[in-house]
C-alpha cells in the first residue's frame, strides 16, 4: 500500500478526506490501481485533473 496526496497529482483539487468517494480524480486513481491484476499500481499514472 502507498499513501498518496491527491494534490501531488492534481494541485488544484481541493478534496478533503471525507469527499474522496465522490472525487473524479480519486475515482480515476482507484480504477487505474484496480486495472493492474497483480499490482502494484503504476506510481507514474497521472489522472486527468479537473480545472
Question: Would you write up a description of this structure?
Answer:
This protein is an all-alpha fold and 51 residues long. The protein contains two helices and no strands. It is globular.
Write the topology of this structure.
Blueprint: H1 6-9, H2 24-34
Brief synopsis:
With 51 residues, the chain is mostly helical. The chain has helices at 6-9, 24-34.
Distance between the termini: 28 Å
Strand content: under 5%
Would you tell me the overall average pLDDT?
A: 91
Computed over alpha carbons, the radius of gyration is 11 Å
Fraction of residues in H or I helices: 25-40%
Count of DSSP H/I helices: 2
**Can you summarize the main beta sheet?**
none
Low confidence ranges: none
Question: Structural class, please?
Answer: mainly alpha
Based on the structure, what is the oligomeric state of the protein chains?
Answer: single chain
General shape: globular
Would you list the SSEs in sequence order as H and E?
Answer: HH
Instruction: Please report the total strand number as a whole number.
Output: 0
Features:
51 residues; mainly alpha
Amino acid at each position: 500500500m502507498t499513501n498518496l496526496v491527491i494534490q501531488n497529482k492534481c494541485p488544484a483539487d481541493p478534496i478533503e478526506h471525507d469527499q474522496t468517494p465522490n472525487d473524479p480524480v480519486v475515482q480515476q486513481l482507484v480504477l487505474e490501481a484496480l486495472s493492474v491484476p497483480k499490482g502494484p499500481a503504476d506510481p507514474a499514472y497521472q489522472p486527468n485533473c479537473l480545472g
